[in-house]
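User: Second chain of the day. Same drill as before.
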Amino acid sequence: MNAKFVKSLLVIGMGLSLAACSSNDPEPKKEDTKVVEDKKEEQKEQTATDFVVSKNYNKKYDIIITMPQDFTTIYTPADGVEVTGEIVNDSFIRYSFENKEADTKKIAAIEANADATADEVAETFNKGEEDESKLYKAYQVGNYTGVNKISDYSYDDYVTYNMYFNLDRDGFKGTIKVVAEKLKDEADDSDTEAIITAILDNVKVEKKKCE
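Assistant: Same format as last time:
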C-alpha cells in the first residue's frame, strides 16, 4: 500500500478520534453557568464597595482588614463636611473629613496589626522611653480599650492620636492600629470619637495562614 496514503488515513483517524472526545464532554449546565456568573457579580460588588488591605507577618500569616469605601454608610457627617477614602501604599485605609468653608479637617487611618494585646504593644514601644509625653498610655473609646500616644509637633498643623485597640471578633483576637489627626486650631473635637467608634464597630478583620 502506498505509504503516503497510509499516513493520510492515520491523520484522518486521529482527527476523528479527537472530535469524538470533544463530543463526549458534557456540556456545562445552565445552572452551573448561572452560579459562576452570580459569584462573579458578587465579587464585583464587594470590590466596588469595600477597601481591603492586608499585612504579612514573618511569611506565616496575613491579617486582612476590610472597610466600606463610602464611610457615610456607617457614619453621618456634619453639614458641609465632605468625606473621602483611599488605600495608601497598599497597606492602610485612610479617610478625610473636610469642611472647606469652616476650615476644618480630620483624617483617620486604619492598619492591620499583629495578634498582640494593646498592653503588649505599649510595652514594646515604651521600652527605654524616658519622655513621659511619648509614652503609650491606656485609652478607651466607648466599649473599646487600647493604648494611645498623642503627638503634637510644633512644626505640624495637626495633633495626631496613635491608637492600638483590642479587638476580639470573627476568629481574630489581637489589635488594630487607628491613627486620627485633627487641625490644632479646631476647638470642637466632638466628632473624633464618633469617627473612631464607627471604624471599630464596622471594621472586618481576618487572620489567614500563608499556604
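The beta strands are 50-57, 61-68, 82-88, 92-99, 104-112, 137-141, 144-151, 158-169, 172-183, 204-209.

User: Great, on to the next one.
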